[in-house]
Amino acid sequence: MYAKDAGFDTVDGGDGDDTLLSTTADGEIRLRSLQNVERIEARAPTSDQAIPKVNVYLESGQSIDLTNVELIDIHQILGESGAEIIAGSAGNDYIVGLSGNDTLNGGSGDDIISDGAGIDLSDGGDGIDTIDVSENNVAITVDLEAQRINYGSNTEVILNFENATGTSLDDTLRGDVGQHTFGRLW
Ligand SMILES: [Ca+2]
Ligand SMILES: [Ca+2]
Ligand SMILES: [Ca+2]
């Protein structure tokens, strides 16, 4: 059971089958670290309410490995301004690095990774994954074939992505259009 408070929590489930459960209407799960937890689940506060959008927030500069964690009705997994290391679950994840030089891995499933500012390393892993650069405020070149993002003088590595979502500026997309589909790049 997870009790929301202002700080970031260190959670160790120990032995047994453990679930981190959010049952508040404004669910936010704030973690410094997570160990030995098998499941993170969002539920409605009462049975007649909808399940709220619950995000997992990782403290700045920390790391989290969700490879063997089942996420149930969790909306996004978000880093902060530091360099976070986030490994997603086997399911479909939405991972947001924000600023800082982040290492973001989707793992299996059809993941969306928003890398944000900073020089990030993003890996979609197995599945049909989307690199989302729409939060950036500079025009970006996304090359899915060369597995690179370029903006200004910066180059970032993007591995195992099949789709891209661009910014509202004049982005450039390179890829094999026979294999890939592109989101709202224009
Ligand atoms: Ca970050
Ligand atoms: Ca995943
Ligand atoms: Ca992939």
Automatic annotation (TrEMBL):
It comes from the Bacteria. Keywords: Secreted. Its main location: secreted. It is found in: Secreted. GO terms for cellular component: extracellular region. The keyword Secreted applies. It holds the Pfam family HemolysinCabind. One of its GO terms (molecular function) is calcium ion binding. This is Calcium-binding protein.
